[in-house]
Amino acid sequence: MLWNLENIVEFTPAQFDLMSTVLTIGYAAHFAGLAYFILARKNVAPRYRSMTTMSVVVMLSAALLLLRLDISLGQAFDFDAASGMYVLGDSTYNHGYRYLNWLIDVPLLLTQSFFVLNIAKKDLFGYRLKLGGAGALMVILGYIGQFYEVVDPLGALLIWGIAATIPFIYFTAIFWRLTGDSLGYLPAEAAATMKNIRYLFMFSWNLYIVAYVVPMLGDFGQSAEGAVTRTYLFTIADVLSKIIYGILLGKVATIRSVAEGYPVDGYEPAVEADVTAS
Ligand code: RET
To answer: Which atom, in ligand 1's list, is nearest to the CA of 141?
Structure first.
């Protein structure tokens, strides 16, 4: 079907190369992240290792998805010597795969932070359910919406997008409160990192919305430039919201591990450990 923006445009060789290069940088970065998180596992005390495991799963699923998208792009388009453009061949490019990947990664990314927060045991399951459930609902609503990005960008695409924003605001508010509380009890260095994590979260997760809105932007939104721009935005958002976010959460876990007396290479044992067990 021709519901995705990429399938209704023709790319110049430069644009096509850009699309492919950006997708390649995306999966290469996630494969690199995969190696990093596997190797960095030892830098956190055992109680934080499930968090690193979640980063490993996120990296692998994202890397494979982006690789799949790049292959799909190559298969869908043929170079047309007559016009000098890349045009759609017998198959189509399925951008919806992205959302199916988010279905795995969004609940993982949201609940991953719980490992470095002090949340009462009795509340943990409830928060997992709320954040994981709202995250999955947002993705499903957005997935339905993206089928309309060509046929009805200012109608159905917009409406499903607004619907997806409701669970988004809901889980963002909870995430903001829980991480905000942590600034009061984390060791100073970890709290400073957590502050950055909160801003990074706000910036990178909102970037997905900007990318979703691209097809609504008139002629530009429905052009090859629009498709290339959107690929850029999604890739930047992916690297920030998964790789950099995971590295910073790992840093918080390392600082907490050291403060709790767990030896980590390159880190001085904390003099004033102001950490209480959760
Ligand atoms: C959609 C639809 C429009 C409204 C909103 C959206 C938000 C998407 C987000 C996606 C985050 C994805 C991540 C993926 C990691 O693999 C669905 C675009 C609010 C926030 C973090």
So the answer is: 17
